[in-house]
Amino acid sequence: RRALSLDGPTSLGKSLEDRDRLDSVNDSLSKASSMLAEAKRQTLESEQIGIDVMSDLRQQRETIIRSRENVGLVGQNYSFAGQLLDSMTRRAQQNKRMVYCIGCLMLIMLVIAVYFLQQGG
User: Fold this and answer.
1) Looking at residue 4, what DSSP letter applies?
2) pLDDT in tens, 68-118
3) 15 CB contacts (<8 Å, ≥6 apart)?
4) Distance between alpha carbon 51 and the CA centroid of its chain, in Å?
5) For residues 90 and 95, what is the distance between their CA atoms, to the nearest angstrom?
6) Are 85 and 79 in contact (CB under 8 A)?
7) pTM above 0.70, yes or no
8) Cβ-Cβ contacts under 8 Å for 12 (sequence gap 6 or more)
9) CB neighbours of 10 closer than 8 A, spacing ≥ 6?
């Protein structure tokens, strides 16, 4: 009966030990709760960083796709421009030959006219 009562000297020592142990457990629980809260904060921060990175990657992907499409259009336009320049060059050469031919023809006509003027006079 004495061991069960709270009046004995051993129960007071045991009660202090229990109280110390309870304080120790409360401190440990408080530290663990703080660590858990910090881990949760870091997790949420990491998740937000991941979302931001995914958003940036999505925008970069769209930019790359648009750039690829634009490069294709530029390539098509470059090909068309090259064909157009080739066509213009051919026409310019034809026009040049035509001017030489007309010049030669006029020179021949001039020579013939001078010949006939000298013969007639």
Assistant:
1) T
2) 888 888 888 888 999 999 999 999 999 999 999 999 999 999 999 999 999
3) 6
4) 16
5) 9
6) no
7) no
8) 6
9) 3
